[in-house]
Amino acid sequence: MTPAQIAATPAQPGHSTELRAAAQHLGAGLDRRRFLTVTGAAAALAFAVNLPSAGAAGAAELDSRQITEDPFTLGVGSGDPLPDSVLLWTRLAPRPYEPGSGMPAARVRVRWEIARDERFSRIVRRGWSTAHPEFAHSVHVDIDGLDSDRVFYYRFRAGTWISPAGRTRTAPAPGAANSSLSIAAVSCQAYHDGYFTAYRHLADEDVDVVFHLGDYLYEYAVNATGGARAYTDRTLPGHYNRETVTLEDYRLRYALYKSDPDLRAAHAAHPFVVTWDDHETENNYAGGAPENNVPPEEFLLRRAAAYRAYWENQPLRSPQRPTGPDMRLYRRLTFGRLAQFDILDTRQYRSNQAFGDGWKVPGPESQDPARTMTGAEQERWLIDGWHASRARWNVVPQQVVLAQRRDVPTDAFKLSMDSWDGYPASRQRILNGAQAAGVDNLMVLTGDVHVGYGFDLKKDFDDPSSRTIGTEIVATSISSGKDGAERPANWTNLTQANPHLKFYNGRRGYALVTFGTKEARADFRTVSGVTTPGAAVTTAGSFVTEAGNPGLTPA
Q: Cross-referenced Pfam families, in alphabetical order (predicted)?
């Protein structure tokens, strides 16, 4: 598009004039790579994501004693535990449903403290952090110098207000011969599809860490009664009843989600390790390609807004802080000698979906060896990390189904072009890389599809008798898809078409995985419904995979 055509394009509401003008100034013919490396693009999309500028840092500071309403309505959280540190998070929002969250455009000093006990009688560390208006008054505190493999309690203070207490835990030391690790895997929590009941149960589980595998929020409109929640005791503001596009839209949507008491309870109970999928920005976007036909500059402005709001509202460290429309989210965590977790981003760097997306018959376009799900740099990082790993279990938390998933048990089958089935060459490079690195105990953790699956990962998915080289645990949704069903309509077709599929359940919930030195156990935990609150939790299926003998067997 020419600069004149870009200028004539209807503006996405709320993007600042300066950002749009800078993006438009780049002119015609720039591909995304050049767009992101041109000085003008950096200026257009900077969003001040490093420390606030000198002018902003010199702005007025609010005396926190002037805060007259509880600023901790969004709760607290912790994340990315290391052997000697953990990241603590909160965000000041006295009026979470209002633009600006009821906070003035001023800095606020926030007190934090971390202790060994729930009563905070044994304080380990305390200090101050600044909540900047440029970051929606979020607070990210990286606490270091902590003892490894230990439970801690933390809280924040702003003026006379004290936050709820959170519980977190550091990872075991790098060389520790730890013999047990318990994790939960969660994904897909559409507010408008139901209550977050599963999170209330997860808050009571005895787990060391929670992995969130994407779709923490949805960009879709939420009506005045909260969609399927069908509120009768409240009315949500009208600005939620539209799709998120601008930075303020995404900030308000996170505030809506984090106002949910069950989600807050889970964050307060356990450290989270988060990665996104598509709905944190827009459904089924691929790299710099939007779902719909909007100018690339417009989409990258939206992606920059979405990524910035994501960092503001998650317990992430400064290396994950975005620069414009880019954010380095893939990273590695180790838990002693027992487990290494390589957290992937399969959305930001992927090739566009083949055949226009959807379920399609595979062909030359989807099977092109040049197609990638991770991008070349992330792929090398993953495989190099496996070569260096000394962990018993190598675990890959990521977004979309890795195993082959035919829709019918006939030769006329179709595959999902948004999952790894649409990127088979990329998948094969990853699986070959694991084998070349000598990874004996590979487990993939997945979200996205709103059902629970248990897969054996095969050396050759087209040959059911080929060697099993790993396992995949797919966590069902927290609420997306509403109540679901124990056996969805396609249950027979999928189970017959995919002999490596060992478990399939369509209720809402989460997955628990306990790693030991001899085996890993997966429990699929489900609730009977989410369109009304308070459902009980049950275990829909349990499986084990033996160390050195991959494959799922009923427990």
A: PhoD, PhoD_N
46 domain-assigned: no
| DSSP per residue, 275-308 | ---STTTSTT-BTTB-SS---HHHHHHHHHHHHH
Supply the mean pLDDT for the chain: 92
pTM of the full predicted structure? 0.93
**Number of structural domains the chain divides into:** 2
The reply to whether 159 and 224 lie within a common domain is no
Look at residue 8 and tell me if it is in a domain.
no
pLDDT in tens, 147-204: 999 999 999 999 999 999 999 999 999 999 999 999 999 999 999 999 999 999 999 9
CATH code of 228's domain? 3.60.21.70
CA dihedral of residues 451, 453, 457, 458 (deg, nearest 10):
-100
| CB count in 10 Å sphere of residue 502 | 19
Beta-carbon contacts of residue 286 (< 8 Å; ≥ 6 apart): 347, 350, 351, 352, 353
Given a contact cutoff of 8 angstroms between Cβ atoms, the answer to whether 171 and 334 are in contact is yes
Same domain, yes or no, for 156 and 201? no
**pLDDT tier at 16 (50, 70, 90 boundaries)?**
low
Residue where one domain finishes, among candidates 124, 147, 168? 168
**Rounded-to-integer distance, Cα 190 and Cα 222, Å:** 10
**Rounded to whole angstroms, how far apart are CA atoms 441 and 547?**
6
Which of residues 119, 136, 168 is at a domain's end?
A: 168
Residue 160 lies in a domain: yes
Q: Is the dihedral of CA 312, 317, 318, 319 positive or negative?
A: negative
Considering the domain architecture, whether residues 152 and 176 belong to the same structural domain is answered as no
Q: Which one, of 526, 15, 3, lies nearest residue 300 by Cα? A: 15
Q: What is the extent of the structural domain holding 137? A: 64-168
Q: State pLDDT tens for residues 397-444.
A: 999 999 999 999 999 999 999 999 999 999 999 999 999 999 999 999
Alpha helices, H only, 405-490: 424-436
Q: Which amino acid is at 237?
A: P
Instruction: Give the residue from 452, 454, 510 showing the smallest Cα distance to 478.
Output: 510
